[in-house]
Specification:
Layout lengths: L2 E13 L2 H7 L1 H22 L3 E5 L3 E6 L2 H19 L10 E13 L2 E3 L1 H12 L5 E4 H7 L7 E7 L8 E6 L2 E2 L5 E2 L13 E4 L3 E2 L7 H15 L6 E2 L2 H4 L9 H8 L3 E10 L2 E10 L5 E10 L3 H30 L7 H12 L4 H10 L4 H18 L9
Helix pairs in contact: 1-2, 2-3, 6-9, 9-10, 10-11, 10-12
């Protein structure tokens, strides 16, 4: 039994919700999979000089000698599946998740083994249905060679992989012949500070005249938040393009390049109106803050001003708290400048000598934190009436 080693690009793919699809319609699902393989998978592998190593029941393991060829295969497969799924109900769609890694592999009897294969399989598990996740090595080698947008997901702890792996999510595809298509809209890069899009508030009452009231609240909240220098606020012309559309906040976050989305609704009953607002973290879909306002519908503009002020003043501290939690979730080696700044402030707030030392470490190389940290450390005790003793106070 001979073994050889070589460097290769490994592509691992599986079918999202395979067990559910088989349970609902085994015969129909298998027929569709055979057609997909004949129409999309096999031709794409052949076009880009790949090798089908094995099938795994609900997926495939492929080997390529070129990272570029592996990426082209992956993006063409996903683009082809997106086209094929157009008009198919969500629960009936066959969607692939794909992971790509490059590394040293062991070849034995046409099968492949090794850490590089295991990482590709774990990356596939991180991908969303219809999505592609790659390792940092793949992203580095592909930079400038393909028209693809890579979103940094930071370092990830993968099951049974000893070291953290830096992972990138792909937001784009390149079609045969150079014509470009996209799996999803290529995202804007996130700004250095917290970013937010305020969507038009949905009118859920039977009174169509309340439409202007919901739009007015959203516009005024945008204006109010724009006065906060710590926030990056998307303009009305961009966020209002989603008016009347049922769009997932994760998609909005990717398309507008924002970390947070504020959405809301209003209902009118008699002479009373109820306004609800929710702040959502776009990347995870988690609710950060939510509130409900019940008011008498008398002076409409005064009411609009009152609700706008209440929402705007609540959002800024809610985002600040969410940013702290987000920074604490990250590994220290994967922190960007803003996250490091937030981690530093968190340690400063502990008012302990050992935390002051850690805060200074997080500020290393960050001019903004280095400038404000001494002032924050001096100002917080007197500002909030908190005592401070020991070194660093």
């Amino acid at each position: 039994m001979s073994q050889t080693r070589r460097l290769a690009a490994i592509l691992a793919a599986d079918i999202a919700g395979y067990s559910r699809l088989i349970g609902a319609d085994e015969g129909g699902t298998l027929r569709r999979l055979r057609a997909i393989r004949g129409d999309i998978i096999d031709p794409t592998i052949a076009t880009h000089h790949g090798r089908l190593v094995k099938t795994t029941g609900d997926g495939w393991l492929l080997e390529y000698s070129s990272i570029v060829d592996a990426l082209r295969s992956a993006t063409e497969i996903q683009a082809g599946m997106a086209e094929r799924n157009a008009g198919v109900p969500q629960n009936d769609r066959i969607e692939f998740r794909i992971g790509i890694n490059v590394g040293d592999i062991v070849v034995e009897d046409d099968d492949i083994f090794g850490d590089g294969v295991n990482v590709a399989a774990r990356l596939e598990g991180l991908a969303e249905p219809g999505g592609i996740c790659v390792s940092a090595r793949v992203q580095e080698d592909a930079a400038g060679k393909l028209d693809l947008a890579f979103e940094d997901m930071g370092e990830q702890r993968l099951k049974n992989i000893a070291r953290p792996v830096r992972v990138y999510r792909i937001h784009g595809s390149e079609k045969v012949g150079g014509a470009k298509d996209s799996i999803v809209q290529p995202p804007f890069a996130l700004p250095d500070k917290p970013s937010i899009a305020v969507l038009p508030f949905t009118n859920m009452s039977a009174d169509a005249e309340q439409e202007f009231f919901g739009d007015g609240i959203a516009e005024d909240v945008i204006t109010a938040l724009a006065h906060y220098p710590s926030l990056f606020v998307i303009a009305r012309n961009s966020s209002f393009t989603y008016k009347g559309r049922a769009v997932d906040v994760k998609q909005i976050g990717r398309e507008l390049g924002v970390r947070y989305v504020l959405e809301g609704s209003l209902r009118k009953s008699g002479n009373r109106i109820r306004v609800t607002a929710q702040l959502v973290e776009a990347e995870t879909g988690n609710h950060v803050w939510a509130e409900r306002y019940d008011r008498e519908l008398s002076e409409i503009f005064a009411l609009q001003d009152e609700i706008t002020e209440a929402v705007a003043t609540a959002i800024a501290p809610a985002i600040a708290d969410a940013e702290l939690r987000r920074a604490m979730r990250k590994l220290p080696g994967s922190l960007d400048a803003w996250a490091a700044y937030q981690r530093g402030l968190w340690h400063v707030g502990k008012f302990r000598a050992e935390d002051n030392v850690l805060a200074q470490q997080f500020s290393s190389g960050l001019s903004i934190l280095t400038r404000i940290l001494p002032g924050v450390m001096r100002g917080w005790p007197s500002r909030y009436g908190v005592g401070c003793s020991g070194r660093g106070c």
